[in-house]
Amino acid sequence: MTSPSTVLLPHTPDHATYSNYVSVETTHLHLDWTINWEKQLVGGSVKHEMKVVGEEEGGLKEVVLDTRDLEVKRVEVDGKDAKFTISAAHETLGSALHIALPTSYAKGNTFEVLINYSTTADCSALGWLEASQTKGGLHPYLYSQSQAIHARSLIPSQDTPSIKSTYSASVHSTLPVLLSAIRISPSISAPLETGGKTVEYKYEQKVKVPSYLIAIAAGNLVYKEISKQGENGASWRTGVWSEPEQIEASYWEFKEDQAKFVAAAEKLTGRSYDWGVYDVLVLPPAFPYGGMENTCLTFATPTLLAGDRSLVDVVGHEISHSWFGNLIGCSSWAHFWLNEGFTTYLERLLMQALHSPAERGLSYIIGAKALSDSLEGFEKKGNKRFQRLVIPYHEGEDPDDAFSTVPYDKGSNFLLHLEITMGGLDVFLPYVQSYVKTFAGLSISTDDWKAHLYAYFTKNGGPEAVKKLDGVQWDAWLNGEGTKLPVDMSQFYDASLADAAYDLAARWAAAGSDEKKLAAFSKEDIASFGTSQKVVFLEKLETSSISPLAVAKLDEIYSFTQAGNAETALRFYEIALASGDAYAQQAAVWVQDKGRMKFCRPIFVAINKVAPELAKSTFKEHAGFYHPIARRMIAKDLGVKL
Q1: Distance between CA atoms of residues 254 and 592, nearest Å
Q2: Which domain range does residue 619 map to?
Q3: What is the DSSP string of 149-211?
Q4: Which of 71, 438, 497, 641 would you call most buried, defined as having the most Cβ atoms within 10 angstroms of its Cβ?
């Protein structure tokens, strides 16, 4: 999968894992699970095929794996019972599972470790929904979210992105099961059982993945194919999964763009799609992210179903992860920007390839506002380390605490800066393709990336290209803190689609509370706007303090709270709540079924500023709806103890 000449530089240890992954690594794991719907547990076993990769005096004597809130019942090494101990639990990292080996193993030796275990009620990777919380209301639902370090609460594992392995699984369930892998049985063409009979679902992932990409979803799920393998020469097929009640809406939303995104990304990266299947699973609304790039099966929020295909760019982002993040991954969460920066960069190239350069520019403009908000937020909280691209995490620190748009937008702007510096896309895209070819299948650090960048342009540009690279403010981009980028990138964005939105925002800001001026606005003002232009308009307007009267007129004329588009509703509520508490109750109702953290966290924070008791009481009443990751972060935002 990668060139045998590829040599990685020594990596700084991943401080978010207890595993002794530098000494021994999992090459394949097999999961044998049974889903207990009544008790909301997943139990069974995991078998690790392991290889000693480090030199240790006297040989390898133990395996250390990450666990958190798991009930470990029995461990075997090469078929024989093995002694094990579990360390005291760390609040964030969980517990180290120490497995004594029956004999010492030298470098190159292989062996198998079988662990019988069960999840517990405190498993942070799993979201369990009662039937009443689903679209259909007839069956319960289960889904996982393991990024960044939640896989250890689902599987005793080397829970670090440094380690990639293939995996297979047999899952027994009375409801259909999906995994981030290729289904072996039941047949792809067979409808899945929902009648209460226990069925064994077998899956296989032949491409190596890190632990956080092992994903599961189960419930009343149906499928609709979008494109077949072999269609237009493709080596892959695409489709969509959801509950039956929204399968037609999901299919309609994605059918025009899903296969086009994959094909365009193949062309841009210079590498065929490796994973065989690209399906999208539209989850219930409690899912905490816009999308999650689980291999073969992107998990997507139902807030993308806007009814006008205006939000499918999120799928373009997740498809881009098939090359950046999934195929080439960061070696630790300190280098997470390599995943998200490259993915966002490719996503925006897709916008240019499939639409226009102006669409790429508009995406950078929207991202710039989100980036500014994140940088300002970390500044106010005193978490300036999280403004960096390469984050110096403290020992035992939770990578979720640094989650923001910084790795996405600061990262993609850095790559855009390099593109411009080196001579434009015609020069830079061949480098990106070389990067993919060189590091496919590996977990790398920022130093690995930079070394390859210099090596490529030394060979393909000579001293002049190297001089350009030497002129880059490397430390400021990678390790710099503050609320501004080292270079003002806005001068390079194509703003042609944004200009009309800026003009309209300026008119509203100038109108103030003048009823005569406010009466001059009409719904025709935004009739030609796409969703992205509406977002730019609202975000620009947010920088001007507008009166409660103007806020009411804004909603009355443009119907942002009634349109069913979560992206525009979010921005409207942020504007409204900044002007007072008139919309606090309405926002509190809106947020009750928005599990995506992009929506629920800022709205709870905004309500908390104008109506703190309402924010806290609403969250406490509906806390059970949110995924454990979102629940913990909202509680921290509001200062609430659960």
Answers
A1: 26
A2: 526-638
A3: TTGGGTS-B--STT--EEEEEEEEESS-EEESSEEEES-TTSPPP-SS--EEEEEEEEEEE-G
A4: 497
Structural domains counted in the chain:
4
Q: Which tokens in the block code for residue 486?
A: 């080292």
Shared-domain flag, residues 547 and 483: no
Helices (H) and strands (E) in the chain — how many of each?
18, 22
Query: Which residue among 215, 246, 263 closes a domain?
Result: 215
CB atoms within 10 A of CB 502: 16
For the beta carbon of residue 602, count every other beta carbon within 10 angstroms: 19
Co-location of 341 and 462 in the same domain: yes
d(CA 310, CA 359): 12
- Using DSSP's 3-state secondary structure scheme, residue 624 falls into helix
Task: Say if residues 428 and 195 touch (Cβ distance below 8 Å).
Answer: no
Give the percent of the chain with pLDDT over 90.
91
Among 492, 509, 537, identify where a domain stops. Answer: 492
Alpha carbon distance 238, 180 (integer Å): 14
Structure tokens at 637: 């935002």
CA distance 371 to 631: 23
The CATH number given to whatever domain includes residue 610 is 1.25.40.320
User: What CATH number does residue 316 fall under?
Assistant: 3.30.2010.30
Measure the CA–CA gap between 623 and 635, rounded to whole angstroms: 9
Q: Please report whether residue 8 resides in a domain.
A: no
* Residues 210, 62 share a domain: yes
In the DSSP assignment, the letter for residue 9 is P
Q: Do 553 and 404 fall within a single domain?
A: no
- pLDDT one-digit tens code per residue, 81-125: 999 999 999 999 999 999 999 999 999 999 999 999 999 999 999
Q: What are 347-379's pLDDT values in tens digits? A: 999 999 999 999 999 999 999 999 999 999 999
What is the C-alpha separation between 67 and 552, in angstroms, rounded?
A: 51
Residues 6+ apart with CB under 8 A from 410: 337, 341, 371, 389, 477, 485
165, 225: one domain: no
Q: What's the whole-number mean pLDDT along residues 142-165?
A: 97
Confidence category of residue 179, pLDDT binned at 50, 70, 90: very high
Cis, peptide link before residue 527, omega less than 30° from 0: no
**Does residue 386 lie within any of the structural domains?**
yes
What residues are paired with 300 via a beta bridge? 282, 291
Q: Is 51 found in the same domain as 194?
A: yes
505 is a domain residue:
no
Three-class DSSP labels, 515-528: HHHHCCCCHHHHCC
Enzyme catalytic residues: 318, 408
Q: Are residues 435 and 339 in the same domain?
A: yes
Inside any domain, residue 5: no
CATH number of the domain residue 348 falls in: 1.10.390.10
Q: What pLDDT does 325 receive? A: 98
Considering just the CA atoms, what is the radius of gyration of the chain in Å? 25
> Within 13 Å of residue 313, how many CA atoms lie on the same side as its CB?
26
Q: How many CB atoms lie within 10 A of CB 528?
A: 8
The better pLDDT of the pair 407, 7 is held by 407
Q: What single-letter DSSP state applies at residue 408?
A: I
Q: Give yes or no: residues 267 and 340 share one domain.
A: no
Structure-block tokens of residue 298: 């992107």
